[in-house]
Amino acid sequence: MNNPSRSDRSPSGPEGRAALEQFQLSPDLFHLNHGSYGAVPKLVRDEQDRWRAHIESNPTGFFRDELPTELRRLAGVAAERFGGRAEDWVFCENATAAVNSVLSSFGLPEGDEIVTTSHVYGAVLKAMRIWAQRFGAKVVVAQVPVIVGSEEQVVQAIAESFSDRTKLLIVDHITSATAIVFPVCEIVNAAHARGIAVLVDGAHAPGHLPLNVEAIDADWYTGNAHKWLFAPRGCGLLWTAPKRQAQTLPVVLSHGAPDGYTRAFDWIGTRDATAWLSFEAAVCFHDALGGESLMARNRKLAADAGEMLAQRLGMQITAPASMRGAMTCLTQRPSSLDAAHAAALIHRLRECCSAVLPVYVFEDALCFRISAQIYNELADYESLANAFPVALQQEIGF
Ligand SMILES: Cc1ncc(COP(=O)(O)O)c(C=O)c1O
């Protein structure tokens, strides 16, 4: 197949609900949760379908002759986009797989500590605890308040959790539950000053904010292309600093494992590689929608919608505008509502106003998070502002 990863067609430029036609999303819903699972554009789905058909035409030739070369070429596309060299980048299923690979490779001696923050993604914290237990190491959680006032506050909370036994820090670039952009450059500097290695979990970052992994200068950086960069699901990325590559292996070890970093990740048995093979088409789609200007547009929409919702609902936003991206988390605290109420609210909001978004309890706060993507417009969030008090009243009777 002749360079099937390059799309000839560009998406046209509608914004708001008119842009929904470029996606497979139901027009009957207000999709306010791009952040969790992304949304695959029709053009990118078509590209993935083309790859599926191509692979089926000659699986043997594809896996033996084409896949290794194509993956390395696409690693070069990641490097062009996010910094570093092609040989620093590998594809993996998702950020979860990348985090586990780093944890399993790191090999903490008994008694050593891994630090993270109270805003860490839940699945990552669970993985940290299990790997730490296997090594006899300890997980230390730096307490960052639910509502953050400044970047310095985050850096200080993390730095105060370091001890002489701290060997690894895992820190989010954009937090999931609270939608805060952490000052990762300053955090990496503070950790490196103490000789502590850093894995930045940038699950939400690619396509969400301008990203240059070399400027961040961590030891590892993982991100998902299947959230904000429009790739099919299962398109995770891991960048590893050259000095860490010799020690970095995937959790699942296969033919490539003895042959170094990129070969170990590029060949982990027989897998569906079509999400990675569609990576460049996703990058082109993101560019065609404006690239950096799309990210700025989404950020402004999330800010405007967040301010409007905060005012209408009497809720607070978890961080100043300078620490937010294309998601805003609104919170009400303290709250007597529990996880069951939050789950019921999700259903009620869908019934009341066809809005799909995460509602949850984080520490002592009832929270919901909105995302802003090309197919959203302010009216989507106004529907939510009208429906939220009704849903709350139906659920808890006040
Ligand atoms: C900060 C963070 N880390 C990790 C993940 C896990 O991503 P995935 O399920 O694609 O592995 C998420 C998912 O939303 C996240 O927000």
Characterization of the model:
The protein has 398 residues and is of the alpha/beta class. It folds into 2 domains: 59-283, Aspartate Aminotransferase, domain 2 (3-Layer(aba) Sandwich); 292-396, Aspartate Aminotransferase, domain 1, CATH 3.90.1150.10. Helices cover 42% and strands 15% of the residues. It is built from 14 helices and 13 strands. The chain has helices spanning 34-37, 42-57, 59-82, 95-106, 122-135, 151-159, 184-193, 213-216, 261-266, 274-277, 279-288, 292-313, 339-353, 378-396, and strands at 30-31, 89-92, 113-117, 138-142, 166-172, 197-202, 220-224, 236-240, 316-317, 327-332, 355-356, 359-362, 365-371. A 7-stranded mixed sheet has the order 2-8-7-6-5-3-4, sandwiched between helices. A hairpin with a 2-residue loop joins strand 12 (359-362) and strand 13 (365-371). Helix 6 (151-159) runs parallel beside helix 7 and helix 13 crosses helix 14. The chain is globular and about 60 Å long. Residues 1-11 have low confidence and may be disordered. Pyridoxal-5'-phosphate is lined by residues 36, 94-96, 121, 123-124, 172, 176, 201, 203-204, 224.
The profile of the biggest β sheet is: 7 strands, mixed
CATH class of the largest domain: Alpha Beta
Q: Output the radius of gyration.
A: 21 Å
Number of helices: 14
**Biggest sheet, strands in spatial order?**
2-8-7-6-5-3-4
Which residue ranges are poorly predicted, with pLDDT under 50 across at least 5 consecutive positions? 1-11
Count structural domains.
2
Instruction: Calculate the terminal CA-CA distance, rounded to whole Å.
Output: 61 Å
User: Care to count the β-strands?
Assistant: 13
User: What do the pLDDT scores average to?
Assistant: 95
CATH architecture of the largest domain: 3-Layer(aba) Sandwich
